[in-house]
């Protein structure tokens, strides 16, 4: 009797997968090779990315530092614009969030620079450009003011002002300015700076003043002629009208001059 099909011996033979590259077209072989190279390269690229410090974390370190530093001035509105970093920048990833501080010569308004640093596992330092705009109430000239004029409330107004041009200081309230005397003429719209003003002269040269000579339990008043201009608290020379003697004394808030007997 004859049988057709698989013999018992054939049933126990292991199956073999034939992978004859010669039977696959060349373009498909190249495609598989390229796919293999890409897949094997991906883990290396991932490791490299994980070892690099994210630029976003550098920028956020600069922003967080400025936000905390500038928050101390509650009277100012602050706008922080962080500059860009070169996207090709590759720095070793910091073990902890990078620290930040103002760069040498940096300022808290206008165009400035923040220094972001890392100490471990390796040390690196980078300067991040930033622009800081701060707005605060400042005293502004409301109408023309002449030189050596005593400031009146109607001469001024309060206006929200960008502070980058106020590095030499400014006044935030009218009470600090009214009664002071100008050193120069001021024009409307101008920010009033400390250097623009001085204490008013209470005494002018040639002016008749009251002299107060004091000692314990006794005060003597007399008239004198001022030999110098002077402000409150300044020491000036005065000629006693009666004795013609020249004495020195301190100007008080009323314009009187106090001498010591």
TrEMBL record:
Residues 136-198 form the SAF domain. InterPro entries: Flagellar_FlgA, FlgA_N, SAF, SAF_FlgA. Its main location: periplasm. Keywords: Cell projection, Cilium, Flagellum, Periplasm, Signal. It is found in: Periplasm. CDD domains: SAF_CpaB_FlgA_like. It comes from the Bacteria. Pfam families: ChapFlgA, ChapFlgA_N. The keyword Ribosomal protein does not apply. Belongs to the FlgA family. Involved in the assembly process of the P-ring formation. It may associate with FlgF on the rod constituting a structure essential for the P-ring assembly or may act as a modulator protein for the P-ring assembly. This is Flagella basal body P-ring formation protein FlgA.
């Amino acid at each position: 009797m004859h049988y057709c099909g698989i013999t018992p011996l054939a049933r126990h033979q292991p199956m073999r997968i034939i992978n004859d590259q010669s039977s696959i077209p060349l373009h498909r072989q190249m495609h598989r090779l390229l796919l293999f190279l890409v897949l094997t390269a991906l883990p290396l690229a991932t490791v490299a990315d994980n070892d690099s410090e994210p630029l976003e974390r550098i920028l956020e370190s600069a922003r967080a530092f400025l936000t905390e530093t500038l928050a101390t001035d509650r009277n100012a509105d602050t706008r922080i614009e962080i500059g860009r970093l070169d996207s090709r920048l590759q720095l070793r990833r910091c073990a902890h969030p990078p620290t930040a501080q103002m760069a040498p010569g940096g300022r808290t308004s206008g165009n400035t620079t923040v220094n972001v640093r890392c100490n471990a596992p390796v040390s690196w330092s980078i300067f991040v450009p930033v622009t800081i705009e701060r707005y605060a109430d400042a005293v502004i000239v409301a109408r023309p003011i002449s030189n050596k004029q005593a400031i009146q409330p109607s001469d001024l107004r309060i206006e929200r002002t960008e502070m980058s041009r106020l590095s030499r200081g400014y006044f935030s309230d009218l009470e600090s300015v009214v009664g002071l005397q100008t050193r120069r003429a001021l024009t409307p719209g101008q920010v009033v700076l400390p250097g623009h003003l001085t204490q008013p002269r209470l005494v002018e040269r040639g002016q008749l003043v009251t002299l107060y000579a004091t000692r314990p339990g006794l005060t003597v008043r007399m008239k004198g002629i001022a030999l110098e201009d002077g402000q409150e608290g300044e020491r000036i020379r005065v000629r006693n009208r009666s004795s013609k003697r020249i004495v020195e004394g301190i100007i008080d808030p009323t314009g009187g001059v106090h001498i010591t007997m």
